[in-house]
Amino acid sequence: MRVSFLSTTPSLVSLVPVSDPSLNSPSIAATRYLTRPVAIRCSNNNTQSVDVCGEYGFHRRDVLKCIGASVGMELLASSGSWVEMASAADLIQRRQRSEFLSSIKETLAKAMKGNPDLIPSMLTLALNDAMTYDKATKSGGSNGSIRFSSELSRPENKGLAAAMSLLDEAKKEIDSYSKGGPISYADLIQYAAQAAVKSTFLAAAIRKCGGNEDKGRTLYAAYGSMGLV
Question: Is residue 160 within 8 Å of 149, Cβ to Cβ?
Answer without folding.
Answer: no
